[in-house]
Structure formats: C-alpha cells, structure tokens
Model the fold of this input.
Amino acid sequence: MIAGQTFTITQPTRIHFGPGIVDTLAQVIRDHGCKKPLVVLDPGLKKAGLDKAALSSLDRAKMKYAAFDKVAPEPGLKLADKAATLARKNRCDSVVGIGGGSAMDVAKAVSILLTNGGKAVDYLGLGKIKKKGVPKIMVPTSAGTGAEVTFTAVFINEKTGSKGGMNGDPLYPDAAVLDPNLTMSLPPQVTASTGIDALTHALEAYTSIQANPISEMYSLEAIDLIFANIRTAYADGRNLTARSNMLLASLLGGKALAIAGVGLVHAMAYPLGGMFGIPHGLANAVLLPYVTAYNLIGNLEKHAVLAALMGYETEGMSPREAAEQLVAGLFQLNMDLDIPATLKDLDIPADKIPEMADIALTVERPVENNPRRPGRDDVIAVYEYALNG
Done:
C-alpha cells in the first residue's frame, strides 16, 4: 500500500453461492419485492440444456416472467434497447440475467433503462446514470466475467463499430446467484477462455495503480484459485470442486476489478471485439502474456509475487528474474489450455494494427490504471509481438 493512499469501496451485491442454489432464485426475486422479472437468457443455455434448470425455480413458484434470449456474444446497444422495450411491454418489475457476461450486461442495462428512460447509447461512459435501476439479479453460467458483482456493462456501438461501457454504481447488481452446477457442461474451449478472462481481471487489478489492500486480497485469492483449478476444470468439466473454485475465483476477480480496475490487456482487447468479433475472454487470453511482458518493469515486485503464487521457485532470484517466470508461466498456461498462441491465429490482419492501437488508447480508464503508461508506438509494438509471437 502506498503511504497516505485513500480509497472508497462500494460492495452492494448480496451473494448466494453453492451447488443447487439456483433453486432459490424465485425467493431471491421475491425478497426484493418483485413479482414479474424480465429474464435475459444466454441463447447457449438451450443448446446446453440449462435453460430449464436455471428457470425451474420460477416455474415451480408459478412466477410470471418475460424472456429475452436474443443476446449476441458481443452484444450491441440496440439489443439492450430491444430487451428494455420487451420489459416495458410486459410491465416487468425486475431483471434477471442468466448466462455469461453478455447476458448479464444486457440485464444491467435494461434495469437502468426502465427507470432512467432514453436509449442505451445515452449512458455510455462514467457517471451518466442518475437513477437506481429496478432490482437486478445475476446468475452466471460461466466462470469468467465476474459481471455479477461489477458496475460496468459493455456493448458494441453499432454506429461506430467501437466497444465501450456504461459505468456507475447504479449498475451494481442487487443480488448474484452462483451455482457451480450451471457451469458443469461448459465446453473445454469456453472453460479455458472464460477462466483466463477471470485471471486477467484479477492480475490486472492486482497490478493496477489503483490497487489497495482490499482489492489485492481479492486478486491474490482469485489468482491462487485459478492456477490451482483451471487445468482440472478444462480437462474434466465434471469435477465439481474445480468448477466451484473457478466460479468463486471469477466472483473474486470481479470484485477486484470493480475496486481497482483493469489495464492494458482490456484496452487492447476492445478493438479485437469491436472490429473483428473476437469474444472478449479469448481476446484477453491471447493478449495476456504479451501485455504482461510489456508491463513487467512497471512493477517488478508485484509480478514476482504472482510468479511465486503460480508455484515457480523464485527464491534467490532478482525481482526481474522472478517476474519473467510469470510471463513464461502464462504462455505455458495458454498452451496447456489450447488457447491460440498469436493474433495471427485469430486471423487479425497486420495492416489494422495502427487503427487498433488508436482505438485501444481511447479506452482511457484501463490505460490510466496500467502499471506502465503506454504510448502509441508501445501499443503497436505489443500488438505486433502478439501477432507474430
């Protein structure tokens, strides 16, 4: 902790965690004085056969609800507007987001649109949401985004093609229902990319210049859980212990990023989603080792701590030598999880790198949080490194 550092922390979300706890969803909704939610569903839930399990509590309680299942992996602002229109038409008094980060982000946006009016585009940025939304309850079905405990909702702006977020305390969910059973059928590739997404949140929050003792506590526990469990969850998705630990790690990573923010990995991932439709978790996963290598000198001591947390022998090493073990470990982790090694593997064209760098630098808060302050040439160089390996 920096001497004289001050910080303010908001943590309003009530958390319900454990196998089978999704069966209490109807009661959680009622606890907030609500009777008819809009349920924003990840369309992948039907393919996985999870939609009935996630909604069985509402069906047993004979609770009326409207369902919106048109969520895209990288949702546009218009999706939030359409979902809000459906909620108004059905006179919904609350919103439930069930799925990955995209479904939860749409649900958050709908909540504030119902009370603030206007269009989703009106709330891009920080501090533009004036009124608290209707009660919003999140049910994550992947272990990655931590969106169930954050004050951000990220969208593609269809007019500009850019990716940006709504940010503000009114977006914090009122409750989160985390049931590891809902993550058991995640395919290995999704387990890998969402798991590295959670790792990115925790690692960037830990090394953020906004980090404080509370965020560091969440970050370190999340990172420890991820390194201990992600390979098992990837290799055997039926392992309830590994799935539970990954879901808890995702939650803790979300808490860490809500307090300390994220860094350059996220800023550089935004153009990959906005320009090429690369899923957010996958973009983060590919970029993480390369950006970490660039960031090392911004805080060698913290990166050395993370290398030791990964299980590398760092005793007797200089901070630089120990920190470099972290980078090697991240490359190895991606290899073990069959994450694409380079941006070239994602078919990202080299001639788009300058444009990507310009867009990345407009994502101001992550750039400002980063432990090493990047210029345009730096971002281009990291993209080129990630392109070719």
The mean pLDDT is 95. The beta strands are 14-17, 37-41, 66-68, 94-99, 125-126, 136-140, 152-156, 163-167, 175-178. Residues 188-388 form a domain with the Dehydroquinate synthase-like, alpha domain fold (CATH 1.20.1090.10). The first helix runs from residue 25 to 31.
